[in-house]
Amino acid sequence: MSWILLAIAGLLEIVWATTMKASNGFTVLVPSIVTVVGIVASLSLLAVAMKELPAGPSYMVWTGIGAVGTFIAGVILHGEALNATRIAAAVLIVAGMTLMKLDT
Questions:
Q1: Separation between Cα atoms, residue 77 and residue 35, nearest integer Å
Q2: What is the DSSP letter of 81?
Q3: Residue 21 domain boundaries
Q4: How far separated are the first and last CA of the chain, in Å rounded?
Q5: Cα 84 from Cα 45, distance rounded (Å)
Q6: Which of 16, 36, 63, 85 has the fewest CB atoms within 10 Å, counting from its CB?
Q7: How confident is the model at residue 99 (pLDDT cuts 50, 70, 90)?
Q8: Residues 6+ apart with CB under 8 A from 48
Q9: Number of structural domains in the chain
Q10: 100 band by pLDDT with thresholds 50, 70 and 90
């Protein structure tokens, strides 16, 4: 169950990072509210998951899901650049997360 909560926390990190961009520096109300609620929910679920999971792998998986997911969301929603270097970086993040998870 802790890994599921951690995955949800990572997905919420994608939400808050993406809406933070849309909040335009916290000047647009709805994305700003979604960002703050997303941050609180994401960190809360991370904290609950870390009660049973090791800190290093938990944090790495959480940030990895958020980083790769936000990268993908940026490409899809904001037209950010998609090139071989960025894809390679995302693949390396996923590889690192996988290795860390295999060791727990």
A1: 16
A2: -
A3: 2-102
A4: 15
A5: 33
A6: 85
A7: confident
A8: 2, 5
A9: 1
A10: confident
